[in-house]
Amino acid sequence: MNRDQFIYYLLGFTDGEGCFHISIKKQKSAKMKWVLDPIFHVTQHKNSVEILYHFQKLLGCGTVKKKYGQPDTMLFSVESRRELVDKVIPFFKKYKPIVKRKSFEIFSEVVESLDNHGHGNVEEFKRLLEKVFTMNGDGKFRRYKLQDILNSLGSSETARQTFLQKLKR
Fold first, then answer.
1. What pLDDT is stored for residue 163 in this prediction?
2. Mean per-residue pLDDT for 160-165?
3. Domain, as residue range, for 57
4. What is the Cα–Cα distance from 23 to 142, expressed in whole angstroms?
């Protein structure tokens, strides 16, 4: 198998066993009290772990480890935003997934906005949240409900007033 064939093999493998995911986590120290935490990962049974090392070598980043709670499953993951922006996203923009196309497009848009600090603005953060909730089953497996998160953010005016109150202290 030549290099191009192997790249397309890994692309197909990603469509079947990979995930472009953005977790939503509560974090008191964050400006919005929520953070968007992107990760790209591919899983495989431990007997075929070598394929995950091929991903790591091809992309030049990420880690391979046992998947938590599943001792027979191995995980290749890229959690570093810098590596996502510099290595993972350019690769999948060049070699476009088919099955995971929509998730990847949203993933790359959100990660690039995070990298440009777009999430510091309440309205942009809300827009990104709404996008994230259209990924991976339209948010039905998420711990938090979109409306609850949006309600916790309040309006832009509420956020501005809160910020001004903190400045006065």
1. 47
2. 50
3. 3-168
4. 8
Q: What is the pLDDT of residues 5-21, one digit of tens each?
A: 999 999 999 999 999 99
Structural tokens at position 146: 């979109």
Q: What is the CATH number of the domain that holds 18?
A: 3.10.28.10
7-11, 20-24, 66-70, 161-165 — which is least confidently predicted?
161-165
What strands, in cross-sheet order, belong to the sheet with 63-67? 18-26, 34-45, 70-78, 63-67
Distance (Å, whole) CA 55 – CA 77? 9
Number of domains the chain contains:
1
Asked whether the beta carbons of 14 and 20 are under 8 A apart, the reply is no
Q: Is 20 helix (H, G, I), strand (E, B) or coil?
A: strand
